[in-house]
Amino acid sequence: MTSYFRSLGLALAAAGALTTASAVAQAEEVQKGGTVVVQMKGEQRILNPGLRASTGVYYITGKIMEPLIDKSYEGYEPVLATDWSSSDDGLHITLKLREGVNWHDGKPFTCDDVAFSAMELWKKLLNYSSALQANLESVDCPDPHTAVFNYSKPMPMDLFLAAMPDLGHPVPKHLYEGTDILKNKYNTAPVGTGPFKFVEYQRGQYVMAVKNDDYWREGYPYLDRIVWRFINDKSAAAAALESGEVQESGFIGISMADIERLSKDDRFDVGTMGYENNVAHSTVEFNHRNPILADLKVRQAMYHGLDIDYAIKTIMRGYAKPGRGPIPTAGGANYTDQVPTYAYDPELAKKMLDEAGYPVKDDGYRFHLRHRPAPWGEYTQLWAEYYAQAMKEIGIDVEILTNDAPGFLKGVYRDHDFDTANGWHQFRSDPAVSTMVWLRSGQPEGTPWTNQFGWKDAEIDQMIDDAASELDPAKRAEMYHTIQAKAMEELPVIFAIEHPFISVTSKKLHNHHNTPRWNSSSWYDLWIEQ
Amino acid sequence: MRFPFPPILIYALRRLLQAVPVVILIMIGTFLLLKLAPGDTVDALVGDMGGADADFIARLRAEYGLDQPVWVQLWRYMTKLATFDFGWSFVYEQPVSTVLMDRLGTTLLLMATSLSIAFTVGTALGAIAARRAYSATDNLISVLGLVFYATPSFFLSLMMMLLFSVKLGWLPVGGIKTIAGFYTGWDHVIDVAKHLIMPTAALSLIYLSFYLRLMRASVLEVADLDYVRTARAKGAGEMRLMIHHIMRNALLPVVTLLGLQFSTVLGGSVVVETIFTLPGLGQLAYQAVVQRDMNTLMGIIFLCALIVVVVNFLTDLLYARLDSRIELA
């Protein structure tokens, strides 16, 4: 339908029939104005994407502060940077910056802001980014609208580009320079260049932003106002959607049962569209310090004991795919499905465990495991319960130790006090800035969401390091295919289920979920039926 | 009398002095208890952020003083508290006192309305039920009381939400006001009142049933006593008998319960505020536990301890007023 209109419009416009073309444009009937109310699960401590890389922060501030480069379904989209290029040796990356862009306080956006943000925030303070920009030496400003990033080691352009939509939000230098950046008051009252201007943050209630009349995309945004309401109770959030008080609930903000129910309700669009860049894996993690789990045969047997398709159907209600190692299908060229897999076969699993030297003992079990499930929402808990149940089938007793978030993180990552654990982990556009920290040994003790599993493989370590600085995209992709296959063979971690997040969106919203990281993006073209 | 003060002031002063060690003990106890919970606010923060590197984590721990031994942390906290400095909330990036004051109003409003409704309606219904003991009216009231008593407040909240917000569309789902409604004057008052109807009902019904049941039993007991028979023999009318002779004496145990329950209502408001997203102390306390926001949590507990101490003092005063045989000593 839409493509028909588009081609028709093109044909007519080409014929010079401008009046008809505008009539076709009106078929979309954009309505300007109105307020969109969004449900948020958790309160945010700070609202500065240059300081905290987290989807919760982008979900709000993505509308207020913009990255240099964003991602659309067609590829990388110029936002504050209009053009980018890399020197042949990969040591210098040059960005052309957009001219005529003003911060919300009226001051112009220039290269000084980018240089300051990169050196003072992205390199030093921003999580994930401090590893990415570790080799950044300086940022030069030959003119106010050109920024040159100088690296001491080659920086692959595709890695830089993949990271920028999340890790490339500049802050206004004039409001941050000379202050204690972590305590700066603009961290909770963001000043950006985006289509919406921050109004207020009422703790425990809402964040509000209004239309930026001085926005650089002429004629945008369409909305007058966006309000993010903090509703932690999932049932209350579903009620707010149904009563029409809230129009968007992202990142699986309500219970899976309600998601399934509302997906059959014709007032809502429910789906995983717009989360291609926010794909996560539900995992089973092993503590390789446990000699039983250090045995590859045991890990492989356990994988054979898991009925992934059943879990996808019952827990994820079908909104997921079986995992194929550390890189999800959303990983683009770096993904391959040419890897060893482990079909559900409990009999084979039992046989393998017998062979590995763990027969069923007098108490009816082969061995006992203490399992820590991450408290990241309902489906993570259910996955833990399913895992324990499936292990029981093949004669492994799994005791589940439930904690809240701080307790879980301390138990697994700081104290290493577990045999197995499960959680979900986001893939952030490029393996080098996300899932590789799961496999690379030598991670600093106690760092959450890194290899704290006691897993060490010199070969994999070397491959990861080589891939991170390989400049040729094709060669780089090949290296990641090898890593993926090796990870599926050795199973340091089971990347069991690949799943995007799910949004429940009122059909009154238009132009929603039209980019691969929509809930984090700027929503400049979003409009609502009044 | 050596002191030229009225006895009530001396009494108040003594109660105040007694409250100081109680509050100090509560604070030390909760501090240690909270430290026993696994993980700290940096774990919670890093969890929210989706990960961070080791230097960042170590820097935060040092900044928040979490790298010090527990006893040092406790000493630092208590010395600051002695000057009524509640410290800084690392979750809200504001002084704890500001965070608390922002939330106190909502909670007090919710508690005051819920408790007054529960108390007045509960005692009235209880008295009526007792006067018509074992009649159809009594049965109806008692069954209702039992149903309210047995229904958990979260369930009641969600059911009301389903009926009045989703199905009927009469009342808003949650929050304290219509965001982006920009109401002023009386419109604002009405708007807030509409937002408070369901939370107040959810919180008060369970306590209403407490008062109802206790008042019914208490009135039944008092109505059989000698002085009531005497009053009736002297020709006092039913109304006068009820209000002057029975109610006043039957209220004593109910007032005791009122004082005791003030603190449990604070607990109940955690659930109701979380479901209805009311920006009150209850919701704040829940968030503070989840985020291991020690300073805020300690501030809330301090405030609640004070409220409970004051309410208990007022209850004692009320006793003396209701029954002149009780002396303040």
From TrEMBL, chain A:
Signal peptide start-end: 1-27
Cross-referenced InterPro entries: Peptide/Ni-bd (IPR030678), SBP_5 (IPR039424), SBP_5_dom (IPR000914)
SUPFAM superfamilies assigned: Periplasmic binding protein-like II
Pfam family, one: SBP_bac_5
Keywords carried by this UniProt record: Signal
Lineage: superkingdom: Bacteria
Gene3D superfamilies: Dipeptide-binding Protein, Domain 1, Dipeptide-binding Protein, Domain 3, Periplasmic binding protein-like II
Domain Solute-binding protein family: from-to ranges: 76-443
Compartment annotation: Periplasm
Family from the record: Belongs to the bacterial solute-binding protein 5 family.
PANTHER family linked: D,D-DIPEPTIDE-BINDING PERIPLASMIC PROTEIN DDPA-RELATED, PERIPLASMIC BINDING COMPONENT OF ABC TRANSPORTER
Protein name: ABC transporter substrate-binding protein
Organism whose genome encodes this protein: Pseudodonghicola flavimaris
Organism classification: Bacteria, Pseudomonadati, Pseudomonadota, Alphaproteobacteria, Rhodobacterales
TrEMBL record, chain B:
Database matches in InterPro entries: BPD_transp_1_N, MetI-like, MetI-like_sf
Pfam family, one: BPD_transp_1
Matching CDD domains: TM_PBP2 (cd06261)
Keywords: Cell membrane, Membrane, Transmembrane, Transmembrane helix, Transport
TM spans (from-to): 12-34, 108-128, 140-164, 192-212, 250-276, 296-319
ABC transmembrane type-1 domain segment(s): 104-319
Location(s) in or outside the cell: Cell membrane
Mode of membrane association: Multi-pass membrane protein
Keyword Transport: yes
Family, similarity comment: Belongs to the binding-protein-dependent transport system permease family.
Protein name: ABC transporter permease
